[in-house]
Amino acid sequence: MDQNVLLLAVVPVTGLIAGFINTLAGSGSLITLPILILLGLPANVANGTNRVGVLLQNVVAVATFRRRGALEATGAWKLVLPSVIGSVIGAELAVDLDEALLRRFIGALMLVMLAVMLVKPERWIAAHADRREPRLMVEVPLFFAIGVYGGFIQAGVGIFLLAGLVLGAGFNLVGANAMKNLIVLVFTAAALVVFVVNDQVQWTLGLLLGAGQAAGAWLAAHLAMQRGAEFVRLVVIVIIVLSAAALFAGVGL
């Protein structure tokens, strides 16, 4: 098949699935990152390019949650600000990391997040969803650390944010999901600037991915069907295993 046709077909569909997953919980980048690498992008460029789709996806998700009254913006600055500062630091670390090392890091991270997904952490988070004890001294360092991680690699940050918002900042699960998308939107914009300045964004693939992720975010925010999310989770597990194996083997398309 012609490579341009392959890109037009595979990348937006990948983005659609990832946008749906990211909006509901997180870890969609565990699909998009390896796909971008397997399509021939260096790992650091794939890492930067991935942020374009994440940004567009979260613009749609935040707008949808806001229209539906699910986004509680009061006091959001104390979560957003430290995460943005952390994301810039994380992105700066990522752009200077050795290509081979970053590739192996992504592969190892995918296997770690696979284990996290297999134990279904959303059930554990949901069990604590009624707790609301916000503590500033906990929130600032916690969301700074999550921001550093998100700026560095992005993959799986949604799960960490949900846990931090519910267990650390006292949100209920619905509010946490909406706030998660707002935080990711802002710190992704900050991290993307770092990658753009360092010429680590492939805009054609990023925008193709973003078109799919925006559509996936819209679907997830409107539908959020339980069976659909579970089916996609199983697909992600299969893709993670295959893609991680390919990354460690040094395979490329």
Descriptive account of the structure:
With 253 residues, the protein is mainly α. It has one domain. The chain is built from eleven helices and no strands. The longest helix has 25 residues, at 43-67. It is globular and about 45 Å long. The two termini are 12 Å apart. 49% of the residues are buried. Residues 225-229 have low confidence and may be disordered.
Provide keyphrases for this structure.
253 residues
Short recap of the structure:
The chain is mainly α. The chain contains eleven helices and no strands. Helix 7 (136-152) packs across helix 9.
Number of helices: 11
Gap between N and C termini:
12 Å
Oligomer: single chain
Number of domains: 1
**Residue windows where pLDDT falls under 50 for at least 5 positions:** 225-229
Gyration radius (Cα, Å) is: 17 Å
Instruction: Characterize the biggest β-sheet.
Output: none
In total, how many beta strands? Answer: 0
pLDDT averaged over residues: 75
